Amino acid sequence: xxxxxxxxxxxxxxxxxSANSGSPAALDASKLNITLAKTLKPxxxxxxxxxxxxxxxxxxVATYDPETGWSAPEIKPHxxxxxxxxxxxxxxxxxVFEGMKAYLGPDGKARLFRPDxxxxxxxxxxxxxxxxxxxGDVVLELxxxxxxxxxxxxxxxxxxxxxxxxxxxxxxxxLGVIASDHAILYILASPTGPYYQMVKPVTLLAVSENVxxxxxxxxxxxxxxxxxxxFLPQRNAAEKGYxxxxxxxxxxxxxxxxxxxxxFVVVKRDDEDGVDLITAPLDGTILPGVTRAxxxxxASDPEFxxxxxxxxxxxxxxxxxxxxxxWSSEGKLLEALVVGTAVIIGPCNRIxxxxxxxxxxxxxxxxxxxxxxxxxxxxxxxxxEWKGWGVVCP
Length: 394
Ligand SMILES: *Cc1c(COP(=O)(O)O)cnc(C)c1O
Fold this sequence. Notes:
This protein has 394 residues and is an alpha+beta fold. It has two domains: 10-192, Aminotransferase class 4, branched-chain amino acid transferase, N-terminal domain (D-amino Acid Aminotransferase, Chain A, domain 1, 2-Layer Sandwich); 202-383, D-amino Acid Aminotransferase, subunit A, domain 2 (D-amino Acid Aminotransferase, Chain A, domain 2). 22% of the residues lie in helices and 27% in strands. It has nine helices and 19 strands. It has helices at residues 3-7, 88-92, 115-128, 136-149, 231-239, 290-299, 302-308, 321-329, 367-380, and strands at residues 33-34, 58-65, 69-70, 74-77, 95-97, 100-104, 110-113, 161-170, 183-192, 202-207, 244-249, 254-258, 261-268, 275-279, 312-316, 333-340, 344-353, 356-359, 390-392. The strands form two sheets. Strands 1, 2, 3, 4, 5, 6, 7, 8, 9 and 19 form a ten-stranded mixed beta sheet that branches. Strands 10-11-12-13-16-17 form a six-stranded mixed barrel, surrounded by four helices. A hairpin with a 3-residue loop joins strand 2 (58-65) and strand 3. Helix 3 (115-128) packs across helix 4. The longest helix has 14 residues, at 115-128. The chain is globular. The site of pyridoxal-5'-phosphate (PLP) has 13 residues, from strand 13 and helix 6.
């Protein structure tokens, strides 16, 4: 959208001059109002769950008005919301979201995995789109209230969980090309199973003609606008028989991410002493994943290295498709892993580029991916207590 559009926005369209008294109210979980659904939905057999298709009975909603600030949050039946079609979210895509999961432990308690990291990321995403300020700690309290209310929706089986989708949308009702001073926060809950049928390996098509993110852009934030431009390349990749895209960047074809997941390779070291666990650095083009950060933290944790008998050298560094091809031809490419909340850690067994495939031995997953996946799942599902990463919903 060009300058012409911005000029079209009359200053008078800005809602609320700052003459009103006091500062707008902050989001406050203690003001929560709960309206329960009159009838509860039947739970569906877990085998039939498809990611993000089934929703629980309730959702959290709070609205921000520039004069009054955040409304008292509500929990109410999951259902449609009504918005003016001129709203900023429809016109300019001012939307951000988070993805996190609640797991049921053997002790019957619901747990979140490092939710503080999701909340800090939500705050940063909102700030990047100049949305009204939001306190992630309060959003987390609301997430916990929803999880507790919807406990029956968390499947007990390993690998299953209640996926949570905190979302903030820009609801300024006007066409002015300016920051939205109105917003709605909502939190949806959706029971979910293994993203790919357990450890089914994914195939990736490396793409350089489209880019997911670029320096100075929004690729390092979970903003909605990053995702729909990836659907066409994704569909083209699927037509060629690949599950997801391996996003490259730059003349030197740097490896960035895989689909909407972070990406790691495990590479044998020259000195034969252990293996490198390599992922791209957070240079603004990479989404700072909670799972990514957890893999890196475990890989440098003496306790984890000891218990898993692995010798890992975690590296956040620039690496390219040619590096991967070279490591593969030298027999040094041991594993390729896609990581994120939905998949947790999964194998990639094949990378295609310009008609050629790099095949990863052992279908992509070896001792490193297996140990990281097991450890993270044990923490998430409450079988292991680990450095405060598992957070019980009281
Ligand atoms: C959400 C997301 C990830 C994974 O982040 P997690 O916090 O581990 O779920 C990776 N890449 C992109 C582009 C994402 O949107």
